[in-house]
Amino acid sequence: MLSAGENHVYRLSGGAIARVSKPGQEQAASREVFLASWLNANGVRAVQPYADLQADQPVVVEGHPVTFWHDLGNHRPGTPREVAAALKQLHSLPIPGKMVARLAPFVRLEERITAATWLPTDDRTWLLARLEDLQAAWTDRPRGLPDSVIHGDAWAGNVVGTPEGVTLLDLERCTVGPPEWDLTSTACRVTSYSTLSAVDYADYCEAYGRDVTLWDGFDLFRDIRELRVTCYAAYRAQHDPALRPNAVTRVGCLRGLNGPRPWRWDPLP
């Protein structure tokens, strides 16, 4: 096993990786396989579906969609400049005519808040109210760059360096939406979590040609991103009590109990 988060990922023999998704995600898994092939065909290097599989992907096993991929072997997190350059290339592509969903920034958030029964009722009530406020703001959000294909979860662990070049991983959230959604992911590392230096962020902005923090819609996109990662921590902590202090810290920050941004959040294992 390589990871056990939203999906379980395993290294197999023969240079293959198996990605096991939750039941009900067959359409998303199929879309991910299509997009990986489409990106590679259009000059954007991405993880490649395993070519020797004698079946259509995904393969559904006991309700779980399973996809198979070529193992990248040794790779490293992308530098800020590499992430920005890869996103600039991705955002410049024409939108494919099929198999691409629209960005849904609030998917599963209400369910995750409600399911985090270990949190105090007051915290869950606050999170649900925060979600409702952000949903209302999203419907009247400022307009920015034209919609494009976006990665959806574009951080250095999903835009990696390999001997062959920078490669996109984890295309589960690859959709059509505002490019600023991708850019905000890295900007939050400076403005919200203090895990990226100002110098590295300047390199990122220079490589992409835009600083999303100067855009009118940045605060909204940042707030949604912060809520998403907090809800994910609360969801993980429901089943792993060791993660609960991390999630409590995040909730407290959003509620204004831990001082102004940037905060210090430990990454989830």
Describe this entry's structure for a reader.
- This protein has about 270 residues and is of the alpha+beta class.
- It has a domain at about 1-70: Phosphorylase Kinase, domain 1.
- It has helices at about 25-40, 80-90, 110-115, 120-140, 180-190, 200-210, 220-240, 245-255; strands spanning about 5, 10, 15-20, 60, 65-70, 75, 150, 160, 165-170, 175.
- The strands form 3 sheets. A 5-stranded antiparallel β-sheet has the order 1-2-3-5-4, covered by helices on one side. Strands 6-8-9 form a 3-stranded antiparallel β-sheet, with helices on one face.
- Helix 3 packs parallel to helix 7 (about 220-240), helix 5 packs across helix 7 (about 220-240) and helix 7 (about 220-240) runs antiparallel to helix 8 (about 245-255).
- The longest helix has 22 residues, at about 220-240.
- The model has no long low-confidence stretch (mean pLDDT about 95).
Summarize the structure.
This protein has 269 residues and is an alpha+beta fold.
